[in-house]
Design brief:
Radius of gyration: 15 Å
Shape: globular
Number of domains: 1
CATH class: Alpha Beta
CATH architecture: Alpha-Beta Complex
Largest sheet: 5 strands, antiparallel
Strand order of the largest sheet: 1-2-3-6-7
Structural class: alpha+beta
Distance between the termini: 14 Å
Helix content: 25-40%
Number of helices: 4
Number of strands: 8
Length: 176
């Protein structure tokens, strides 16, 4: 895991890490054109990260130094990337669940984070079309994790007290 972190730092210098104030800054809406360009850059960066490490399911604009309301997700079952431009959280369930979350920006740390079981989000997709969808289960968690980045909230800021740990001895399959 240490070798992979070093490779990421050397090969993906645009990837920001905890300690960089941009990760705690709320993002602003962007034009579709700028959102499209940001989504392309995010997808390219996430692909590079996945090639180096074999992990990574999402990336938000602040994680590459941009304060744009854009994030992308990766679905390993379909091998597809999806862009979310100017997303808005419309609804969330009253019931929550816990899951141990890590983040590309927190390097080798993770913690238990409580999130709503389901959410409804609206956004513009990569084709410029408005979308509204309700997510549950894993996809709800992933979308909320990336959405929080746009709000200036890293996942470790939401972790339950006493649950943040070093995750250097885990298998890649355990990290999203």
């Amino acid at each position: 895991m240490i070798k992979e972190v070093t490779e990421v730092i050397e090969n993906i210098p645009e990837l920001t890490h905890l300690g960089n104030q941009i990760l705690r800054t709320k993002c602003k809406e962007v034009s579709f054109e700028n959102g499209f360009k940001t989504a392309e850059k995010l997808t390219e960066t996430l692909k590079s990260y996945r090639k180096l490490t074999g992990i990574g399911a999402g990336l938000a604009a602040p994680q590459i130094g941009l304060l744009h309301r854009v994030f992308v997700t990766y679905d390993k079952k379909t091998d597809l990337y999806e862009a979310f431009i100017n997303p808005k959280l419309l609804e969330k369930s009253r019931t929550n669940n816990f899951y141990r979350e890590s983040c590309l920006s927190s390097r080798m740390l993770w913690g238990d984070v409580s999130r709503p079981n389901s959410i409804t989000l609206s956004w513009t997709n990569i084709n410029g079309k408005p979308v509204k969808e309700t997510f549950s289960s894993y996809k709800a968690r992933l979308v909320q994790h990336e959405y929080d980045h746009l709000q200036g909230i890293p996942c470790l800021d939401k972790a339950e007290v006493g649950t943040i740990e070093y995750c250097g001895d885990v298998k890649k399959e355990q990290i999203r």
